[in-house]
Write a structure and sequence with these properties.
The complex is a heterotrimer.
Chain A (H helix, E strand, L loop, with lengths): L7 E5 L1 H7 L3 E4 L6 H11 L5 H4 L11 E4 L2 E2 L12 E5 L6
Parallel strand pairs in A: 1-5
Antiparallel strand pairs in A: 1-2, 3-4, 3-5
Chain B lengths: L7 E4 L7 H11 L6 E7 L2 H12 L3 E8 L2 E7 L2
Parallel strand pairs in B: 1-2
Antiparallel strand pairs in B: 2-4, 3-4
Chain C lengths: L5 H6 L1 H4 L5 H9 L2 E5 L5 H11 L3 E5 L24 H12 L4 E5 L8 H5 L4 E4 L4 H14 L3 E7 L2 E7 L7 H4 L12 H4 L3 H20 L8 E6 L4 E6 L21 H7 L12
Parallel strand pairs in C: 1-2, 1-4, 2-3, 4-5
Antiparallel strand pairs in C: 5-6, 6-7, 7-8
The chains are: A alpha+beta, B alpha+beta, C alpha/beta.
């Protein structure tokens, strides 16, 4: 895994990818707790993205799967390091 | 050495590949391990393919005897 | 060999030849009962392959009629079927492929009132639904009934697949404890779908169901297969069962099927209450 200083890769799928228009973004979130990084991400990506990740009270939606380096995230929270890969999966409705 | 007498026989003359092996296999499934079936197949591809498939499926070939334009293959269930 | 007709021996020869299947495996398939929810994009390859394989009884649940926009990907139906109930069109196609198969059309919408009855007579359920309420209903009903469920979802060029084995691995709510707010996640109708993606993902579902019925290989239980059709990349993610899962966890709060609208109404609270219909 390459270390990219203070950048982490956010991998996007499904509706998030469709809304943001990118498969992944490299963002300067190293050192942040993952929940804070997700908050900052929602702030930075425009108002269409926030409701996909957080409810109106600011709680993370329980309809997303969050992975850190392909593993489920510890519920106590983890601190991001340079080169980490965060994957955000929303459920796919189509059939 | 006397030729082994099989527990049952199956006449597959005129049955093409791979159906001859498929029918042989279905018959073998009904046997207890160690029991034998003798299938009679046409010369040529059937006589080559059936023993090979039987071995690949874990069974033992007891004898292969050409006779009167056909081939008798005795197979012991693995 | 008295178990199969001549025609069946020939029809299923490519299965019987497989060391892992044989006549014994084929008999298992003929004796199996699988329910497919939906007769659309995912359900089409599932229905076609399960019928071809000789799964003896296949139920199809769908209340819609065949629409022109369906034909871009829903390969169970043809132009001649436009306007027909989808479950009847599916029945005709599948029984036409294999007369050994009995297709049971269930022309209805699944609700909390009927889902347990609908799934009762089947061994395995396949989620080919196109909406979250039905997906959660199917998951909850299968967990409550202890029935395996093949789940998949698609959108644009992507797909997800997993196999849910109640009591032995995570269920859909372990992955996504709550449905997303209504209107948040687009359907194929809104965001589009490359038709063949439905074929790829639905075929994986069909293979999983056959493996399950035959007891073969490793299932996608506890794993989510994430497919990106633009890259042709497959990734599997291991996902654990949640001890606090509302339906399959150690202390379930969902003990009967629940309708989505009711679920959303209750979302503000910390506990979920189930609605039991007589």
């Amino acid at each position: 895994m390459s270390t990219n200083g203070n950048h982490v890769e956010i991998r996007l799928f499904g509706p998030l990818r469709a809304t943001i228009g990118e498969k992944s973004l490299s963002l300067p979130y190293a050192g942040m707790m993952i929940d804070d990084a997700l908050e900052r991400f929602a702030d930075e990506q425009g108002e269409a993205v926030r409701p996909m990740l957080f409810d109106s009270q600011g709680n993370r939606l329980r309809s997303i799967i969050l992975l850190l380096n392909d593993h489920t995230v510890d519920p106590d929270g983890e601190r991001l390091r340079g080169g980490d890969v965060v994957t955000v999966l929303l459920p796919l409705a189509g059939g | 050495m006397a030729e082994k007498i099989p527990d049952c026989r199956l006449d597959l003359r005129g049955t093409p590949c791979p159906l001859n092996w498929v029918k042989t296999k279905l018959r073998l499934e009904e046997l207890d391990p160690g029991s034998t079936v003798e299938v009679v197949v046409d010369q040529g591809n059937p006589a080559r393919n059936v023993p090979r498939s039987a071995r690949m499926d874990g069974h033992t070939i007891v004898h292969v005897i050409s006779e009167n334009g056909s081939v008798r293959i005795c197979i012991e269930r693995g | 060999m008295t178990r199969f007709t001549e025609s069946q021996i020939e029809r299923y020869s490519r299965h019987i030849i497989l060391q892992e299947v044989g006549g014994i495996g084929q008999r298992k398939l003929l004796d199996s009962r699988v329910l497919i929810i939906g007769a659309g994009g995912l359900s089409s390859p599932v229905g076609l392959y399960l019928a071809a394989a000789g799964v003896g009884t296949i139920g199809i649940v769908d209340s819609d009629t065949v629409d022109l926009s369906n034909l871009q990907r829903q390969i169970l139906h043809t132009t001649a079927d436009l306007g027909r109930p989808k479950c009847l069109s599916a029945q005709e196609t599948m029984e036409g492929i294999n007369p050994d198969v009995s297709v049971i059309p269930h022309q209805l919408r699944l609700t909390s009132a009927n889902v347990l009855d609908v799934i009762a007579d089947y061994d395995v359920v396949v989620d080919g639904a196109d909406n979250f309420p039905t997906r959660y209903l199917a998951n909850d009903a299968c967990v409550l009934s202890g029935k395996p469920l093949s789940h998949a979802g698609i959108l644009r060029f992507e797909g997800h697949v997993t196999t849910i084995l109640p009591g032995r691995g995570p269920c859909y709510r372990c992955l996504y404890p709550e449905p997303p707010p209504p209107g948040l996640v687009p359907s194929c109708q809104e965001a589009g779908i490359l038709g063949a993606i439905a074929g790829i993902i639905g075929s994986i579902q069909a293979a999983e169901v056959l493996k399950l019925l035959l007891g073969l290989g490793e299932l996608l239980a506890g794993r989510l297969l994430v497919f990106d059709g633009l890259d042709m990349a497959f990734r599997t993610i291991e996902l654990p069962r949640r001890p606090d899962c509302p339906v399959c966890g150690d202390r379930p709060t969902i003990t009967a099927p629940i309708d989505y609208e009711e679920f959303c109404r209750l979302r503000g609270g910390t506990t979920l209450q189930s609605e039991v219909h007589p």
